[in-house]
Amino acid sequence: MNILFIHQYYFPEMSGTARRTKEIAETFAKKGHDVTVITSFPRSNRIMPGYKTKYYETINNVKVHRLKNIFSVGKNPSIRMLSYFFSMLLTVYYISKKRKKYDMLISVSPLASGLAGAIANYLYKIHHHFDVPDILPDLGIVAGMLKNKILIKLLFKLEKWVYSHSNSISLVTKGHIKNLINKDVSPSKIFWVPDWIDQNYYYQSLNKKMIINTKELFFTENKIITFVGNIGALQAPDVFLDLMKMINREKQYNVKFLFIGNGIMLSHLKKRIKLEKISNIQILGRIDRSQIPYFLNNSDILISNYINDPILDTYIPGKIFEYIISGKPIIMGGRGDVKELLTKYNAGIAVEPSNPQKIKKGVYDILSGDYVCNTNIKEFLDIYSMENVIDKYNDLILKINKYYKN
Hints:
Layout lengths: L1 E5 L9 H15 L3 E7 L15 E4 L2 E6 L9 H22 L5 E5 L2 H14 L2 E6 L5 H5 L6 H16 L3 E4 L2 H9 L7 E3 L6 H8 L8 H4 L4 E6 L9 H13 L4 E6 L5 H11 L4 E5 L6 H6 L3 E5 L13 H8 L3 E4 L2 H9 L3 E4 L4 H13 L8 H8 L1 H20 L1
Parallel strand pairs: 1-2, 1-5, 2-4, 5-6, 6-7, 7-8, 9-10, 9-12, 10-11, 12-13, 13-14
Antiparallel strand pairs: 3-4
Helix pairs in contact: 1-16, 2-3, 3-5, 9-14, 12-15, 15-16
């Protein structure tokens, strides 16, 4: 099959959806599909260090075409919307020139990517599969990026139109499936394709030589709590600073907190750490992805959080899958799907979102031995290994394509 992937972000962009798109595209290419990706140039604050991006390149047998977007995605919601809209227009124009080449379009949310695929489906009758790791505009509203009531109403109508012009839709959590069914999307076109973990990459990376001096971090009496990933509004990272202020004040344990990653909240955190003189926090920023398993493996606790909103009860942070394979105890400020996942595999503690007191109790329970993590990694990988998930994804795409051709 000739498959065109549509997503605004792609390698060397390091966002979770960029990784998801890359791993699907490359695995499909290995299985014999002719795979092309339409994307834009990566954001400077999310790019893999040292990589030189090109307009056209082939990466692991995937042809990557980057479209030059005159608007950059940042904090400003209006500019962000313009960036998505312009990217959609460029993508539709690209498809119009090559519409006879592709058997299937697979767009990966945000909504702008899905809109490009839906328009192509409407105009050119190309099969459109919409892969939805993030449900918009719901997530934009929760994050505070969308506040204008007229715009929100318009986006909900647009969302409904995109779903109606998607022949099939994949969702990453059972909560997301309920969300779409409640929006009157036909269950017959909805499929569960969860996030996954590339176990081979994880274990191979553990044997790589470190390019970062970690002596000061790990060869001390400190207990290490590590956060990895996007440092954004949805993660409410201020809660971790509040946590460390309490731990430092109570002096029950010697704890160091590591931030690994980047995001729009990072500059705010740095200012607050300096202003309030919060000690024992270290920000490593963006590092080579192959180095991350080392930090996970050498930490005492791995941590994540969401803001306290029911919409996020249907989400599981992508980082949780890497956390689980490390076998280290996890503390997650979250409910719903992520709590069920941690409980099922005895991988950690889920507490009330964005509650520093509850998170602190989790930290103390782990460090005191009151909670013992005994993660069932084998059972976890039977469901969530990249090989198993994308094999099933490939089978799904083949069946869907055969069904609609007949």
